[in-house]
UniProtKB/TrEMBL annotation:
UniProt cross-references to SUPFAM superfamilies, sorted A to Z: RmlC-like cupins (SSF51182)
Family matches, as InterPro entries: Cupin_2 (IPR013096), RmlC-like_jellyroll (IPR014710), RmlC_Cupin_sf (IPR011051)
Source organism: Thyridium curvatum
Domain Cupin type-2 stretches: 91-165
Full protein name: Cupin type-2 domain-containing protein
Signal peptide (from-to): none
CDD domains, sorted: cupin_RmlC-like
Length: 188
């Protein structure tokens, strides 16, 4: 029976799914940025600590043990290291369109809305429940746990752009025939 222990982290999200977390841009609270010590006096500071000019806002923190998101930018020198740990996708939804119903398998995902508004429909797994409509506007984040069925919907007359970051080095998307449906087989 102990041979099943290593499988628990992979099986548990399928049995007891987590909930989707939405972080609206207007509700994010600034986290104090580290202060930089000025090596030489700047504007009469006499070398005391000065503000860095960077505001950081926690968006998706403590929702996954594999990833998090903060409203800040990373330098180009850090990008290679980050890309080895996570898969990044840029999704552009054309006007009046929607994606297939899908999930990302065992991957956690963070979605960042570059533009919007758009809707992230999520399903709790309850057959009788309707999908929940989560509006994502520019600057909003969404955390999507493993195996969570969802759909991206653009009801506007403009393109919307979202960045999807998965907790893997290669993206995975499992398209479904419908909510709770079978895996859609793609022609090769």
């Amino acid at each position: 029976m102990s041979f099943l222990l290593p499988l628990i982290p992979d099986l548990l999200p399928m049995i007891m799914p987590s909930s989707v977390h939405i972080a609206k841009a207007e509700n994010m609270v600034a986290v104090p940025a580290p202060r930089a010590a000025s090596p030489q006096p700047v504007n009469g500071t006499n070398g005391e600590e000065t503000e860095t000019g960077v505001v950081q806002k926690d968006a998706v923190v403590h929702k996954s043990d594999k990833m998090c998101a903060r409203g800040e930018y990373y330098s180009l020198t850090e990008t290679k290291k980050i890309r080895q740990l996570m898969a990044w996708l840029v999704v552009v939804a054309k006007p009046k369109s929607s994606s297939s119903v899908h999930h990302y398998g065992e991957h956690d995902a963070i979605i960042y809305a570059v533009s919007g508004p758009g809707f992230l429909l999520t399903h709790s797994g309850d057959e009788d429940a309707e999908p929940k409509r989560n509006e994502l506007s520019a600057g909003d984040f969404a955390f999507v746990p493993p195996w969570t069925e969802h759909q991206m919907v653009n009801e506007t007359d403009n393109d919307i752009t979202w960045v999807v970051i998965q907790s893997a080095s290669e993206p995975l998307q499992v398209d479904l025939t419908e909510w709770g449906g079978a895996e859609l087989k793609h022609a090769k």
